[in-house]
Design goal:
Strand content: under 5%
Shape: elongated
Structural class: mainly alpha
Number of strands: 0
Largest sheet: none
Oligomer: single chain
């Protein structure tokens, strides 16, 4: 008796292996992300957490971060959101997966979720909208279950209990109303799941090899169609705006757009470094005395020593991306100057806070800083007769003025992954 029960249990588990695996993946990601990033449990920081960990923000998704279509399917707002969606998945998955081929079930789940994410991105592309959760994929399973249920009932062999369908529907839409309804993802997932189920039912009437070819072709064509629609709706303008907004925020933290945006005590440290470089250049010294700018025991300066180099690393990475988007000659020259400035600042911070900070050419460092200040001069404090320099300044300032309200809203709500946060 015990042996037969154990065999029955193992058979049920094997028949529902992908349902259980998907539930485990969703729970594991929620636990790991929460463990690594405390913002997961902070209501004021949860938006930035969800954006940084892969939430579907249409403007970000359609401007090149296509991976958000997939990652948003496994990301949840909180434990209640996760629990409701996993109960809905479990209630239908263990029945439908046993009725379908397991790989077909997985394909329906993933393609429905991707379709729901894409419909959301297209529907809300002009607004600041954040979507996450497995509900689009679960509605795909729900749509497939309806198609299979109607087919089996017509054939006189009911397999999917109506109670499970109703339970899953109530849970999924309940989660939507509790955490803002993403009707676009629900509709996209539901329709795609029903369509895929219809194809799967048709394949059941074919010979095994032919059915496998039909199902594989359906999966590949589905992925290709999603990719084609996504690429066709690529938003180059928003991509440029977001890149400029990110760069502007980085420049602001570095203190180049006014002390009001700079990290705490960064302006005073910059002033000390500028004085040391000027004195070294004036006196003909090869090595400026930058160590005097580091005050032992100053906790704020210690934080700057840790986090400002990360800003300069971001500066290099962002400039590399901007070069591909802004290709005119003046802009390229301005970005080269900005890249040199960030490299110089990295050397300066190393010289301030490390015993063996390496050698710095005071005059080159001073010139790099002076040029960057001229390029970003907002108050007309600098003058030059050089037409190329004026063109570079105009190009750089014009780029920083490009981002609109949506781009700034997204960047303003974005934080940073747990391994690089300056919090």
């Amino acid at each position: 008796m015990l042996l037969s029960q154990r065999r029955f249990l193992l058979k049920r588990i094997f028949a529902s292996k992908f349902t259980l695996l998907l539930i485990a993946c969703n729970i594991a990601l929620y636990c790991v992300a929460g463990f690594l990033d405390s913002r997961a449990f902070e209501s004021l920081s949860q938006t930035s957490f969800l954006i940084d960990w892969g939430g579907n923000v249409p403007a970000l998704t359609l401007s090149g971060e296509y991976w958000r279509l997939f990652t948003s399917m496994f990301l949840h707002i909180g434990f209640l959101h996760l629990a409701i969606n996993m109960l809905a998945l479990w209630s239908l998955g263990i029945i439908l997966e046993a009725r379908m081929r397991s790989w077909v079930f997985l394909g329906v789940y993933l393609l429905s979720g991707l379709c729901g994410s894409l419909v959301t991105a297209l529907w809300h592309r002009d607004e600041f909208f954040l979507s996450c959760g497995a509900s689009g994929a679960i509605l795909g399973i729900f749509g497939a279950a309806i198609v299979y249920g109607l087919h089996d009932r017509r054939m006189g062999r009911p397999h999917i209990p109506p109670g499970n369908l109703l339970f899953s529907l109530v849970l999924t839409f309940g989660a939507g109303f509790a955490f803002d309804v993403d009707n676009a993802a629900h509709l996209g997932g539901l329709l795609s799941g029903a369509l895929l189920a219809g194809i799967a039912l048709y394949a059941e009437r074919l010979r095994p090899v032919t059915a496998a070819v039909v199902l594989a072709a359906t999966g590949m064509l589905g992925v290709a169609a999603l990719a084609a629609v996504t690429l066709d709706n690529h938003d180059r303008d928003m991509q440029e705006q977001l890149a400029a907004a990110r760069f502007g925020r980085t420049l602001g933290k570095m203190g180049l757009l006014g002390s009001d945006q700079a990290l705490w005590k960064a302006p005073s440290l910059e002033e000390c470094a500028a004085g040391a470089l000027a004195a070294a250049a004036r006196d003909g010294l090869k090595t400026p005395d930058l160590r005097r700018c580091a005050k032992p025991g100053d906790r704020d300066l210690a934080l700057l020593a840790r986090f400002m180099p990360l800003q300069y690393q971001s500066c290099h990475a962002q400039i590399a991306g901007l070069r591909k988007l802004y290709t005119d000659a003046a802009m390229q020259e301005a970005l080269t100057a900005a890249d040199q400035y960030c490299g110089t600042q990295t050397q300066i911070y190393r010289a301030i806070f490390e015993e063996d900070g390496g050698e710095i050419d005071p005059e080159k460092a001073r010139q790099a800083r002076l040029k960057m200040n001229f390029l970003l001069d907002q108050k007309g404090m600098y003058r030059t007769d050089s037409a190329p320099l004026r063109a570079q300044a105009s190009a750089l300032k014009g780029m920083l003025r490009r981002p609109g309200e949506l781009a700034w809203a997204i960047i303003g709500h974005s934080g940073c992954p747990y391994w690089s946060c300056a919090r």
